[in-house]
Design goal:
Helices cover 30% and strands 36% of the residues. It is elongated and about 75 Å long. It starts with 6 loop residues before the first strand and ends in an 8-residue tail after the last strand. It has 5 helices and 12 strands. The protein has 2 domains: 120 residues, 2-Layer Sandwich (Ribosomal Protein S5, domain 2), CATH 3.30.230.30; 93 residues, Alpha-Beta Plaits (2-Layer Sandwich). The protein is an alpha+beta fold and 226 residues long. The longest helix has 19 residues.
């Protein structure tokens, strides 16, 4: 059975800038869900900063054993791309591209100074980002008569289940997204709260992201990158 670990990925792009001895370091973070997207975003950033001294980067794409790539882009070997990648690894983030652009300010920083500058810039742009917590989840659709709806709604809220959608027609239909490991528990609870009168359907599982406001985001992983 294929593992489906939880992971964290950026909700949207972020950018920071720091100055170290007159050199400008611009850190940019992009959410990416394929190598092709990472390379396209990298090319776009290079085009914007084509007059920069360096556009160093690292990215990680995919789960389990991800694709990881990095580049020093002309800086001394090991002083830029690898430190950026190590920041991504330490933070435990997935499907992320970080590009640190340098505009040289006239003062050499030395190897240790470069490592520190690239590491700090990458860390700061991650600090500025908003994140999605992504889980392997299933949609659970519940149909219930109006007479039992109020009690079920109360029990779901009390137990911490979030109803994502409600539809009112001949009966009431509720939609709940649940981590796959909790699906059976939810079904059992609904059956108990409704005396077995609810009609429950469970859809196929997929990765779903939840942002810091509790909203769900879909399409966070391409199937080929699982």
């Amino acid at each position: 059975m294929q593992e489906t670990p939880d992971f964290v990925t950026p909700a949207r792009a972020a950018e920071v800038e720091i100055v170290v001895k007159k050199s400008r370091f611009i850190g940019q973070l992009r959410p990416v869900n394929s190598v092709e997207q990472a390379e396209a975003d990298l090319d776009a950033i290079r085009a914007v900063h084509k007059t920069a001294t360096h556009n160093c980067y690292a990215y990680t794409v995919g789960l389990g054993v991800p694709v990881e790539r990095f580049s020093d882009d002309g800086e001394p070997s090991g002083t830029a791309g690898r430190p950026i990648l190590e920041v991504l690894r330490r933070r435990g983030v997935s499907n992320s591209l970080v590009v640190v652009t340098r505009y040289f300010g006239g003062t050499l920083l030395g190897a240790s100074g470069l490592v520190r500058a690239y590491t700090d810039t990458a860390a700061r742009v991650l600090d500025e980002a908003e994140w999605l917590t992504c889980r392997w989840m299933q949609p659970v659709s519940v149909a219930i008569d109006y007479g039992r709806f109020g009690k079920l709604e109360h029990e779901l809220a009390s137990a911490g289940w979030v109803v994502r959608d409600k539809q009112f027609s001949e009966d009431v239909r509720l939609l709940i997204w649940t981590p796959v490991g909790d699906t059976l528990k939810l079904k059992e609870q609904i059956a108990d709260w409704t005396d077995g009168q609810a009609r429950i359907e469970v859809g196929p599982a997929e990765y779903v992201g939840e942002d810091e406001q509790g909203e769900l985001v879909f399409g966070v992983v391409e199937s080929k990158n699982r």
